[in-house]
C-alpha cells in the first residue's frame, strides 16, 4: 500500500512540475489575431481553393488588423498586410526573417537546394547570394544589355507578323534572354526545347506548390507511408517532380559546359563562374549548376507577368498609352528604338512602368519567408518556424497610400507642375521582395521590362480587339492563381503606329 502511495505522489509531483514548466515555456502573449477555420484543417481549404488568395488576406486584415495569423493544419502562417509591418520585420529584422519555410514536400521534390528555397542557415546560402549578385546586379549584367536590346528587335518583328500570339512572343523574348545570359544558349523561337521545357515545369510548380497546401508539411511522418497506400499519391507526384527538377538543373548546364569546351562560348553566367578559378571541386560545380538553374527557373515568368499586365492595362487605358507614346516621339524621335540609357529622359514612361508593377504585382505574395526564432512584434507572439507571407498586393492596393487603387494612373509618381505635388511611393520597393531574400534578378528583370515597354510604345498601338460583329471586346481584369500570377487569357489589337514605325521594326540594327 505504501509503495502505491509513494508512486502516486511521485506521479503527481512529475505532472505538476511538467505543468509549471509548460506554463513557463508557453508564450505569455498571443499570436496575431486571425480566422480559426475548421478544427482539423484550419484555413487550408481557403488557401488551396481561392485563386486570388491575396484578396482574402487583405479582407481578413480589415477585420483583424494588418498582421494576421492562422493555421493550415499544423503549419503556422503569419501574413503581413501593411508596408510598415513588412518593413519592420522582413527588412529591419532580416537576420531573423530571411529563412524559407521548412517543407517536407519541398524535400521530397528535391527543391530545397534551389536558391529560391535554400535555408538562410545553410552554409552555402551566402555564396548563392554572392554569385547571383555578381552576375545580375548592374555591374555584372551590363555585359548582357546588348542581348536584351537585340532580342527586342526580334520581339517587335514577331509582334508585327503574328500579333495574336503576343503572349508566346513575350515568353520567347524573356526565356531567350535568360538562356543567353545564364547559359550562352541562343533560342531560335518560342518552340525552342528549353523554353517549352521550363514553361511546362513552371506551370505545374506554380499550381501545386502553394504555401501550407500539402498535408505532409503538417505531418511529416506521412512521407513514410508506402506509395501504394490510399492517400499516398503525393509520393508518386513528388517522385515525378524530383526527376523533372533534376533535368531542369542538369540539361541546360550540360549544354553550356559542352559549348564552353569549344572555346567560342558567349560570356554567360556559367562560363564566367566556371572560368573564375582553377581546380573547381565537384561541390563548387554543383553550386554553380544550382544557382544558374534557379535563375533559369525564376527569370522568365515574373517578367512575362509584368508584360502581360502592360498589354492588359494599355488595352484598357488608351489615354495613358498616348501620353507615353508622345513623350517617346518627342524625346527620341522616330528613327531609332529607345535604349536603356534613355530611361532618365522618359519620366512618364518610367511612371507608367511603376504603375504596371503596382496595378498587379507579378508575385502578389512574393515568396514565403520563415522566422528562425521566437519573436515579439507590437505585443504579438510570432513563433519560431512560422511561415511569414508579405502581402505585396495589399500594400500596393492600400487606399491610404495609393488612393483609388483600382484606377491605372501613372501620374501618381509624377510631381505636379509647381513641383509641390505629393508623390506616391515607388512600388518597386515592394514587388521585388525583402531583406536578404530580395530578388537578385531585379536589375536584369527591370531592364528587360523597360526595353520591351519603351520599344513597343515607340512602334505599336495597343487597343481593344473587335468581335465578329465589329463590337469592341473589353477584357476583364481577372488573374490566375499561383506564386507568379498572370492575367487570364485576353485578346487585344496590336498594330504598328505608322509607316515610319514599320521601317523601324524591319530595319533597326
Ligand atoms: C519583373 C521581374 C521580377 C520580379 C517582380 C521578381 C520578384 C521576385 C520576388 C518577389 C522574389 C522573392 C523575394 C523574397 O522572398 O522576399 C524573387 C526572388 C528571386 N528572383 Fe526575382 N523577380 C523578377 C525577375 C527575376 C529575374 C529576371 C531573375 C533571374 C534571372 C530572378 C531571380 C530570382 C531568384 C534567384 C530569387 C530567389 C532569391 C532568394 O531566395 O535568395 N528574378 N523575385
From TrEMBL:
Record pathway: Secondary metabolite biosynthesis
Gene3D superfamilies registered for this protein in UniProt: Cytochrome P450
PROSITE patterns: CYTOCHROME_P450
Keyword vocabulary terms for this entry: Heme, Iron, Membrane, Metal-binding, Monooxygenase, Oxidoreductase, Transmembrane, Transmembrane helix
Binding, heme: 439
Domain of life: Eukaryota
Record-annotated membrane-spanning stretches: 6-23
InterPro entries in UniProt: Cyt_P450, Cyt_P450_CS, Cyt_P450_E_grp-I, Cyt_P450_sf, Cytochrome_P450_fung
Molecular function (Gene Ontology), one example: oxidoreductase activity, acting on paired donors, with incorporation or reduction of molecular oxygen
UniProt KW Nucleus keyword: no
Named cofactor requirement(s): heme
Family: Belongs to the cytochrome P450 family.
PANTHER family: P450, PUTATIVE (EUROFUNG)-RELATED (PTHR46300:SF7), P450, PUTATIVE (EUROFUNG)-RELATED-RELATED (PTHR46300)
Name the UniProt record assigns to this protein: Cytochrome P450
Natural source organism: Sistotremastrum niveocremeum HHB9708
Amino acid at each position: 500500500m505504501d509503495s502505491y502511495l509513494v508512486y502516486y505522489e511521485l506521479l503527481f509531483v512529475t505532472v505538476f512540475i511538467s505543468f509549471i514548466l509548460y506554463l513557463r515555456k508557453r508564450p505569455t502573449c498571443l499570436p496575431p489575431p486571425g480566422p480559426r477555420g475548421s478544427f482539423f484543417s484550419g484555413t487550408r481549404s481557403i488557401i488551396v481553393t481561392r485563386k486570388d488568395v491575396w484578396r482574402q488576406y487583405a479582407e481578413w486584415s480589415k477585420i483583424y488588423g494588418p498582421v494576421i495569423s492562422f493555421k493550415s493544419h499544423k503549419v503556422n502562417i503569419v501574413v503581413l498586410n501593411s508596408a510598415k509591418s513588412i518593413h519592420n520585420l522582413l527588412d529591419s529584422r532580416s537576420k531573423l526573417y530571411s529563412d524559407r519555410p521548412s517543407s517536407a514536400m519541398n524535400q521530397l521534390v528535391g527543391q530545397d537546394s534551389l536558391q529560391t528555397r535554400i535555408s538562410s542557415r545553410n552554409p552555402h546560402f551566402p555564396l548563392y547570394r554572392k554569385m547571383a549578385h555578381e552576375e545580375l546586379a548592374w555591374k555584372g549584367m551590363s555585359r548582357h544589355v546588348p542581348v536584351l536590346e537585340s532580342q527586342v528587335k526580334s520581339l517587335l518583328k514577331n509582334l508585327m507578323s503574328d500579333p495574336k500570339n503576343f503572349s508566346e512572343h513575350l515568353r520567347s523574348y524573356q526565356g531567350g534572354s535568360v538562356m543567353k545570359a545564364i547559359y550562352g544558349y541562343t533560342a531560335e523561337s518560342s518552340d525552342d526545347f528549353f523554353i517549352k521545357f521550363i514553361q511546362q515545369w513552371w506551370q505545374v510548380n506554380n499550381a501545386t506548390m502553394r504555401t501550407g497546401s500539402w498535408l505532409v508539411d503538417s505531418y511529416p511522418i506521412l512521407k513514410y507511408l508506402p506509395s501504394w497506400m490510399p492517400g499516398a499519391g503525393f509520393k508518386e507526384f513528388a517522385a515525378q517532380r524530383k526527376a523533372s527538377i533534376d533535368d531542369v538543373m542538369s540539361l541546360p548546364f550540360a549544354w553550356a559546359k559542352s559549348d564552353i569546351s569549344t572555346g567560342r562560348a558567349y560570356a554567360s553566367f556559367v562560363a564566367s563562374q566556371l572560368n573564375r578559378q582553377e581546380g573547381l571541386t565537384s561541390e563548387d560545380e554543383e553550386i554553380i549548376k544550382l544557382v544558374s538553374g534557379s535563375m533559369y527557373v525564376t527569370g522568365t515568368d515574373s517578367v512575362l507577368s509584368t508584360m502581360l499586365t502592360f498589354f492588359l492595362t494599355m488595352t484598357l487605358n488608351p489615354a495613358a498609352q498616348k501620353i507615353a507614346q508622345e513623350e517617346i516621339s518627342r524625346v527620341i524621335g522616330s528613327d531609332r528604338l529607345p535604349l536603356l540609357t534613355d530611361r532618365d529622359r522618359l519620366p512618364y514612361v518610367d511612371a507608367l512602368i511603376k504603375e504596371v508593377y503596382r496595378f498587379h504585382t507579378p508575385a502578389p505574395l512574393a515568396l514565403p519567408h520563415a522566422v528562425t526564432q521566437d519573436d515579439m512584434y507590437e505585443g504579438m507572439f510570432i513563433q519560431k518556424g512560422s511561415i511569414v507571407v508579405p502581402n505585396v498586393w495589399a500594400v500596393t492596393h492600400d487606399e491610404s497610400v495609393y488612393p483609388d487603387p483600382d484606377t491605372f494612373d501613372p501620374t501618381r509618381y509624377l510631381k505636379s507642375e509647381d513641383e509641390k505635388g505629393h508623390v506616391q511611393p515607388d512600388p518597386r520597393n515592394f514587388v521585388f521582395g525583402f531583406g536578404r531574400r530580395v530578388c537578385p534578378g531585379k536589375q536584369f528583370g527591370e531592364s528587360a521590362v523597360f526595353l520591351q515597354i519603351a520599344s513597343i510604345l515607340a512602334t505599336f498601338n495597343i487597343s481593344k480587339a473587335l468581335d465578329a460583329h465589329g463590337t469592341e471586346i473589353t477584357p476583364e481584369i481577372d488573374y490566375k492563381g499561383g506564386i507568379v500570377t498572370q492575367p487570364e487569357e485576353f485578346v487585344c489589337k496590336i498594330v504598328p503606329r505608322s509607316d515610319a514605325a514599320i521601317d523601324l521594326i524591319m530595319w533597326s540594327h
